[in-house]
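[Q] Does anyone have a clean structure-token version of this?
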Amino acid sequence: MSWSTFRDRWQVFIGAIVTVALGVALVQSSLLTLISAATAKVPAGLPAAQAQTMRDGYTAAIALLGMTLGLATFVAGFIVSSTFAFTAVERRRELALLRLVGASPRQLRRLLFGEALLLGLVGSGLGVLAGRSVVRVQDAMLARFDLVPDGFTSEWRSWVIAVSVGTGVVVAVCGVAVASVRAARVRPLEALRESGGDTRLMTIPRWVLGGVFLAGGIALLVLVPAVGGDAAVAMALCSSMVLVVAVAAFTPLLVPAASWLPRLFAVGPLGQLAHANLRAGARRSAATAAPVIVLFAFVVGMAGSLDTLGVASRQETARALRADLVVTTDRELTSRLAAVDGVAVVSEEVPVAFDLGALNDGKVEYDSANALSVDPAAYARTHRLDLSSGDLAELRGDTVAVVGSHWRVGAVLRTRFAGEPRNLRVVARLPATISGPEFLLPAGRGVEASAPRRYTIQVTPGADRSAVADRLRGAGLGSGGAVDTAAGWIRHDADEQQRINVQIMVALLGLAMVYTVIAMINAVVVAASGRRAEFATARVSGLTRGQVVRMALWEAAAVVVIGLFLGGLTASATVFSLMTAIRHMIGLTVLSVPWALIAAVGLGSLVVIGLTTALTALAATRTPAVRLTGARE
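[A] Here you go.
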């Protein structure tokens, strides 16, 4: 029987099938690529800096693929559960008829679980076939993002098929769990109602689900300012996911409550009728608004968080840097630059990669860490430093200065430089920063001859900066050397960080956009499948076919506006929480709103839902109205 209903209602399930297929393909490809990146070996003989860059790239690729796995599973489960929840409501009269002819609640649950199993198997089969192509796309994307070396290819592992198919089936079956409980509570006499819809907007499981996730989201938002650093961004993204589930659970209440917003533009009889339909069909409107909420909350929340973090990093660097010029090169030039006429102070800053040890179950385990090798006196003159404790002047020999960490002055860090163990004593602590570095090392510690260097330079009072910059360019900076003003270097560094942020957004938000566009189309198609008689009644009452379509379009536009409003509230909570974390961390109040992206997402949602609504409304009104009125669907 599950096969029969699945076959007859394939149009309703097609969106969920595509979602599961895409999720399975991403799970398969991400697992293969993640394991290949985690087991990749750094070629022997590379300079330490280059080897560390390659290791950092693999680490970033693993983190990105892990987020992709989580996001794919989350959004797929969200869309499948939303599909089954809405179809269960739309099929309430059909399920009541089955109860009337003798079906038990357990049999109704088995019916829905059988449909979910079929959906999961079909979607998983398609996803496994598409997975090979997605692997190649992900490999190329990671190489283009400079996270893996050119020529990197993911190694095939046969067991990933079982894991991918299992994931697809589990996502589908778990997605139908709540809907099956609701379906089992259908009473036989409900088959006698003209409308199969449920009069209750909120059920007890929905209240519990929404309440739990709302409490969890608020807890995460409160914790974001406390954790700070990179962890704050990850926690902000998690809070966005949790809050999206909470808002989606409460959409049957929130959508009618927020209907005052489109009511302001409900002009004329068609607008008023569409507004009444929006409130009367609260579940239908909520199901259509849910993917808009997800899209807007994810895209705007993450983009706003990354933009805010980038602006804060740029402002922090500008506040801390007291240099006039910045020289970047690949060779040691301290004495040569200091000899240039007009140069007062030269501070050499060299990035150093090393291993930091931690005691775990009696064994020392090492993780990679990054630092700057500096001359403390020159560094203090070209940077504004606010020491928490200790004295940076003591940074010499086997010592280290820590930035925003839990180590106290006098503590000893276990480290390795090029495989050689060395204990470093903490001599100074600096407040946490967004722009780094994590550690400061004495000049020359762990520095390789070919390592890239940055020189922050102060010119003598009254000297012409442009003339000094020209003389610096003539000092033999090497093939990769460059001279820039401090403001120009900060701008170029911010542009590079923005490029990395865009890559992250393309990888993650592109995925979210594809998923939610599928969900939008699916929600509109499912909703339109049960409105043929409603549209026919409107036409018999005097509306033309064109007026019915325009009414449906107005209703769709109103749902998009409500979805954008609720999604915007969710995204705002995420961004403002991160803004609070930044203020606690560095004392700057920074907020960056991606207005262009907001406009693009809003317009795109309106186009997708509007076009789908117009097509489905035209299809639903193709049959003469007199053939549908008076007959139950």
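[Q] Thanks! Anything notable?
[A] The beta strands are 325-329, 343-360, 363-374, 389-390, 399-403, 412-417, 420-430, 439-442, 453-459, 482-485.
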